[in-house]
Amino acid sequence: MIYCRFKTYTLCFTVAGKVYTSLADGRIVEVLEDRLRTVASIDPEKLGLEACQLPQNTVRCGRPLGLKFDSKGTLYTVDPYHGLYSIDVTTGKVKLIADVAKLGARFLDDLAVLEKTGDHKVFYLSDASTEWDLFDVAYTVAEHDSTGRLISYDTETGQVKVELQGLPFPNGLALTDDRTALLMCLFNQRSVHRYHLSGPKKGQVVPLAADLPGEPDNIKRSLDQTRETYWVGLFSGRNRHNRHLIVDTLGQYSMLTRFGMRLGRAIGFAIEKAGVLLGKDCLTAFGFDFKTGHLLNVGMCSYGMVLEIDGATGEVLHSLHSPDGATCALSEAFEVKRTEEGERHFLLGSYANSYLGRLVLPQSAFQRSTVISSSSQVSQQQKQQQSSSSSTSASSAKSSTAKTASSPSAADKASSTGKLKAKDEL
């Protein structure tokens, strides 16, 4: 795994095979074999990296979420606080295409790029909530918010259109191979839907995969060339015997949940202000995390899971598991390589983890569901490095190996390259 210090969320790559991801401090970075190379930074106020590492400056520095390339190699991203951007990954030039005021968005989460003729494009954007923003994403989930929308922006006409509304936390988006439909993850409904963009079913929304064992975040096309399949990252895999305290248990009592969340907000606000008055950045950051409910994620994710689904039927074809939660709160599984021997290489992104996971699995691992189990703690040197990093980092991370439930011998062949330390070029 590569320690990022600042949480990753989504990944994408160019035709040339270069992989890019976004970080919580507003940067877009290229993922190299043993380090991250900074390509660009949103940072519209030019505050600088040190200031942008503080969570309370996220609004000013930006937090790029979805990333997508077009066929010409231009990278596009959405920032929930500022809008839709294009990025030249060669020069690092960042250009604002449409701000949140023009788009009428509150919580931009992901995007899909439908290319027309010439430079004409239509961007499809998930607006996760019209009541809460990214800071308050915990409230969006805990209160089962369903004010989200799917909006489109036409670069030729400048028109912004609300395609769908009343959605329960729409986030991950992916165009189908034939570009006639859009696959959309609905986090609070634990489902994936297909929205038809053209053809006889244009404008119709149909469920593709429902009643998933966890909340789907991002959805990414696999490298399967014989069958159109997609990898879906789940926040926390669970069933009726493994319930989430906030979402599943307390979520049944809406008034109690709302009271508890708002009480925590008031307490966190007081702590944050105390930190500002005392000039203590750590106390300020703690108060910020308390106020926004981010601390609720600590210890709440106990089972990691990723699903591979059929793009036509929604059938779950394969699933990767981390029963002990060593690898959890996954935003996505990004398949970056397949070898002639059938090995599959993945990068695991997460909005909560302070590392970018790397996983290599043999062909035999996909005969049945695959278990990603914790094998060892990070080295003492890595622990010290982790504990001295920014307060946005998780407390510790674990390396992992993978094995199939049906074939223990496969564990000796599959491994994650967990010895790489981050050497982030600034």
Q: How would you explain this protein's 3D organization?
A:
- The N terminus and C terminus are likely disordered.
- The chain is globular, with a radius of gyration of 20 Å.
- The strands form 6 sheets. The chain has a 6-stranded mixed sheet with strand order 18-19-20-21-25-26, with no helix packed on it. The protein has a 4-stranded antiparallel sheet with strand order 1-24-23-22, with no helix packed on it.
- With 426 residues, the protein is of the alpha+beta class.
- The chain is built from 8 helices and 26 strands.
Short description, anyone?
The protein contains eight helices and 26 strands. The chain has 426 residues and is α+β, with helices and mostly antiparallel strands.
Keywords:
single chain; about 425 residues; four-stranded antiparallel sheet; 8 helices; about 15% helix; globular; disordered C terminus
How is this fold's topology laid out?
Elements: E1 2-3, E2 8-13, E3 19-23, E4 27-31, E5 36-41, H1 49-52, H2 58-61, E6 67-69, E7 75-79, E8 83-87, E9 94-99, H3 100-103, E10 108-115, E11 121-127, H4 137-142, E12 148-154, E13 160-167, E14 170-175, E15 181-186, E16 191-196, E17 205-209, E18 216-221, E19 229-234, H5 245-249, H6 254-278, H7 281-292, E20 304-310, E21 316-322, E22 332-338, E23 344-349, E24 355-361, E25 370-377, H8 380-387, E26 398-404
Parallel strand pairs: 21-25
Antiparallel strand pairs: 1-24, 2-3, 3-4, 4-5, 6-7, 7-8, 8-9, 10-11, 11-12, 12-13, 14-15, 15-16, 16-17, 18-19, 19-20, 20-21, 22-23, 23-24, 25-26
